[in-house]
Specification:
Structural class of chain C: mainly alpha
Number of strands of chain C: 0
Largest sheet of chain C: none
CATH class of the largest domain in chain B: Alpha Beta
Largest sheet of chain B: 6 strands, mixed
Strand order of the largest sheet of chain B: 6-7-8-3-9-10
Strand content of chain B: 15-25%
CATH class of the largest domain in chain C: Mainly Alpha
Number of helices of chain C: 11
Chains: A mainly alpha (271), B alpha/beta (274), C mainly alpha (297)
Shape of chain B: globular
Order of helices and strands of chain C: HHHHHHHHHHH
Number of domains of chain C: 2
Number of domains of chain B: 2
Structural class of chain B: alpha/beta
Helix content of chain C: over 70%
Order of helices and strands of chain B: EEEHEEHEHHHEHEHEEH
Distance between the termini of chain C: 22 Å
Oligomer: heterotrimer
Radius of gyration of chain B: 18 Å
Strand content of chain C: under 5%
Number of strands of chain B: 10
Chain lengths: 271, 274, 297
């Protein structure tokens, strides 16, 4: 019986299940940061326009919570919808391109170029397409923003399988679809999730910038602009805070799903 | 266990288009059912290519390959062989048990039947109790044993092995050799085994086919008449060293047929990103 | 290479490389033509069938591609300069902001990565906020940044310098994350070798970690370069800065009904700018960094 030399479960556990110790440094930074912020704003008498004190923002959050909540949900729905549509299309396209490899190779330079294009400049056009007051116009631009990174990453995951894995499948007389199902797709999950996380941020950007060009009054982006225009800066900053918090929650939700789906993964794949 | 397969290779040649390389040149080789035949030769001589042609993973340019009385292609479709690579090629997202069960799932075996066979295999390779482990939790030697268990799980009449112990240290390698022989004697399948190691080939095989440098030809075949069943003390058998010398001589001869510099370029470089 | 191939002259391999480059160029051109044809085909079909889902198809929502390109060579307004001149000026303006932002963001990002790589504690403390920083809608913050930064800028930078800061905000993040990974990617055996020379921490950083991070750095720069363009455009949008591409977008968005092609043409130019930035970094990478070819299709 050979000597067992497995990787001790400890490292895996420490990575998957965060111990309390891990949380202390960022928590400390947060507390210190807020204290510093409050102190500087009061001490240097910073213009309200630029940066209100955290206490002022907190008050506004509490007072206007209904308004901010509904606006937040409105914008988040746009981002979520765009994220779902863009990711679904991205994954499907990647599967097709992985199957028809020559097509994928021919289209690759265009995918790379598309990643470099400032897609956000396209937002006014999606507004024209779907109507600026509709949610769908913002979902569309978010979906376009999300589509490309998801497709490129998923494609990379589907095709970066070791050749011997494929040979193994061939030795089992497996067809393309079985190989896709049993090998390529599980192999691509780390890549996919990496892209999905980035995509949450992109989707929020798409929604908010899309709203800038024109949007329904219920949208968060509208709130930010409107309140700034009315010199209600605490409200503007409260709205900004809401947008940021939603973005963080969105990202974290996907990260959580990733951790469960990739429980088998020996190393952590960082973004 | 199912009957062991015979492998019959006649006039086999393989030319790769890329670089216009003649990898194999009119190979003739017959493997009897139940035999353990090693393929040994310098780097780039095409032994891995030959193995893959037997497994219908590469198509030959010329010649015939019959496996278990059928064409290599049909044998692959009928799943007449199991293959073990130098890299264990286990799937990280599956447990050890699930990895071994993979070909059984694909063959449509029922759950209960799969589970009992997996247990049998784990016992065979002496890894019982590791069902729920994941590949990265195992050492290299253990991973290879799982790979072997997987290859044998559906009792194929033929086992193809491509330098399966090449990545292991000497002591583990020797131990794995003993294990493999024991398993072979229990399953009675035919084995075609590619290796770099002269001692390993002599220890394991009934015959050793020595290949020349590229283009690969059979430089000679050494019949290994060491007594069966073999064990750790076989290495100390007086005839053992002589047989090693015979193989070495053939290697040198096959080597000298071509350019003095060793052509080390890996011949079969599987395309990454398949 | 096998002995047969080694005997072939060197000229052949260079010619082979040129030939394959030509082939892939032709292929890309073909794909471009096919994509444009698909556009026109969808337009033709949509108008014929009076498609309304996902959006109504007409000359306003889907101008002809040749009209979009042709519009570039029309005056941008009555008796005004050609559209392409206007747009190229705007692009140059935005490019200036983006380039400055790219430089600033790359330097800052790199510096942050170096600091974080040397201290586990700082890393754990600050990394979550660095990631979270990208969730703050910079579009909303842009006017504040402009108001705050502009007065502090010297003469030549005034008016557009603040936008560079915003562009830098989008740029520093990928640089930090990737460079951090790169700095930590040094081969442990190389590290041991350095320690056996009793090399100081600084020297290890300088001679080993930083060079090891270059491939990662360039990967990041390829992402950061187009991001700086996006940042510049987003920064211009709410900041009443007329000279750049955002101004052009807003302008032609206003006049979309009368001339939809102009907005599309603006998008084409903006796309070109993003691709240009990417290409510059990609070429720099090929010249400056020698690395093993990627084993991925």
């Amino acid at each position: 019986m050979s000597v067992v030399a497995p990787v001790p479960r400890g490292t895996l556990g420490a990575r998957v299940g965060r111990s309390a110790i891990d949380w202390i440094p960022p928590a400390m930074v947060l507390v210190l940061g807020i204290l510093l912020w409050e102190g500087l704003v009061r001490g240097l008498d910073v213009q309200r326009f630029l940066l209100p004190a955290p206490s002022a923002i907190l008050d506004t959050l509490r007072e206007e919570r209904d308004l901010l909540w509904s606006a937040g949900i409105y914008t988040f729905t746009e981002a979520l919808g765009g994220w779902v549509i863009g990711s679904a299309l991205g994954v499907l396209s990647a599967i097709v391109l992985a199957r028809f490899r020559s097509l994928g190779r021919a289209l690759m330079p265009f995918a790379i170029a598309a990643n470099a294009v400032p897609i956000i400049a396209f937002a006014p056009i999606t507004n024209q397409w779907f109507g600026p007051l509709e949610k769908t116009s913002k979902m569309a631009i978010a979906a376009i923003l999300v589509f490309f990174p998801v497709m490129v990453n998923t494609l990379r995951g589907l095709t970066s399988v070791r050749p011997q894995s494929i040979e193994l499948m061939r030795s089992y007389a497996a067809g393309e679809i079985e190989t896709l199902r049993r090998v390529r797709i599980p192999n691509s999950l780390p890549f996919l999730f990496s892209a999905l996380k980035v995509a949450t941020v992109l989707a929020m950007i798409g929604a908010v910038v899309g709203e800038y060009f024109l949007s329904s009054q219920e949208a968060l982006g509208f709130q930010i602009r409107n309140s700034a225009a009315l010199f209600q800066f605490e409200l503007a900053w409260a709205a900004i805070t809401v947008a940021s918090v939603l973005g963080i929650l969105f990202y974290s939700a996907v990260a959580l799903v990733e951790r469960r789906a990739l429980r088998w993964h020996p190393s952590s794949r960082s973004e | 266990m199912t009957q062991a397969a015979a492998v019959s290779i006649t006039g086999l040649s393989k030319r790769f288009e890329r670089g216009d390389v003649l990898a194999l040149d009119r190979i003739d080789l017959d493997v009897q059912p139940g035999e353990f035949v090693s393929l040994i030769g310098p780097s780039g001589c095409g032994k891995s290519t030959l193995l893959r042609i037997i497994g219908d993973l590469i198509r030959p340019t010329d010649g015939d390959v019959l496996v278990n009385g059928k064409s290599a292609h049909q044998a692959r479709l009928d799943r007449d062989y199991g293959i073990v690579f130098q890299d264990a090629v286990l799937y990280d997202w599956r447990t050890v048990a699930k990895n071994i069960a993979l070909p059984l799932e694909m063959a449509g075996w029922g759950r209960r039947r799969r589970e009992s066979r997996v247990q049998e295999m784990l016992d065979l390779v002496e890894l019982s109790g590791f069902q729920k482990h994941h590949p990265w939790q195992l050492s290299g030697g253990m991973q290879q044993r799982v790979s072997i268990a997987r290859a044998l799980s559906f009792s194929p009449p033929l086992l193809l092995m491509d330098e399966p112990f090449g990545a292991l240290d000497e002591m583990t390698r020797e131990r794995m050799n003993n294990e493999l022989l024991r398993i072979w004697q229990e399953t009675l399948s035919t084995v075609v085994f590619v290796t770099h190691s002269i001692a390993e080939s002599v220890f394991l095989s009934t015959r050793v086919a020595v290949m020349s440098a590229r283009p690969g030809r059979i430089a000679g075949i050494v019949a290994i008449d060491l007594p069966q069943p073999r064990g750790p003390d076989t290495r100390e058998h007086p005839h053992f060293a002589e047989l090693i010398t015979q193989v070495r001589r053939l290697l040198r001869k096959g080597h000298a047929l071509d350019a003095p510099e060793e052509d080390e370029t890996p011949l079969y470089v599987a395309e990454e990103g398949l | 290479m096998s002995s047969a191939a080694a005997a072939r002259p060197l000229v052949d391999s260079r010619r082979e490389a040129q030939l394959s480059a030509l082939k892939s160029g032709a292929l890309s051109l073909l794909v471009l033509i096919v994509l444009c044809s698909l556009w026109e085909a969808y337009k033709w079909f949509g108008e014929r069938v009076e498609l309304t889902r996902p959006f109504p198809v007409n000359d306003r929502t889907m101008p002809h591609i040749h009209d979009m390109v042709g519009q570039l060579f029309e005056p941008s307004r009555r008796n005004g300069p050609l559209l392409i001149d206007v747009l190229l000026d705007a692009a140059a303006f935005t490019a200036k902001e983006a380039a400055a932002g790219f430089l600033l963001g790359a330097v800052v990002g790199f510096a942050i990565a170096v600091v974080l790589s040397e201290s586990r504690l700082l890393q754990r403390g600050f990394l979550p906020y660095i990631v979270a920083s990208q969730t703050i809608p910079i579009l909303a913050i842009a006017p504040m940044v402009v108001v705050w930064v502009n007065p502090k800028l010297p003469e030549p930078l005034e008016g557009w310098g603040a936008v560079s800061v915003i562009a830098a905000y989008l740029t520093f993040f990928p640089v930090t994350i990737n460079t951090l990974r790169g700095l930590q990617s040094a081969d442990p055996r190389a590290l041991e070798l350095m320690r056996s020379y009793a090399a100081s921490r600084w020297r290890i950083l300088w001679k080993l970690r930083i060079p090891a991070s270059f491939p990662y750095l360039f990967t990041a720069l390829k992402i950061a370069a187009p991001a700086s363009v996006v940042g510049a455009i987003i920064g211009e949008l709410p900041s009443s800065i007329q000279g750049g591409l955002a101004g052009a977008i807003l302008n032609f968005n206003q006049y979309y009904i009368t001339s939809p092609e102009s907005l599309w043409a603006t998008n084409i130019i903006a796309a070109g700018l993003g691709i240009l930035f990417f290409a510059v970094v990609a070429i720099a990478e090929r010249l400056l960094v020698r690395r093993a070819p990627e084993h991925v299709a």
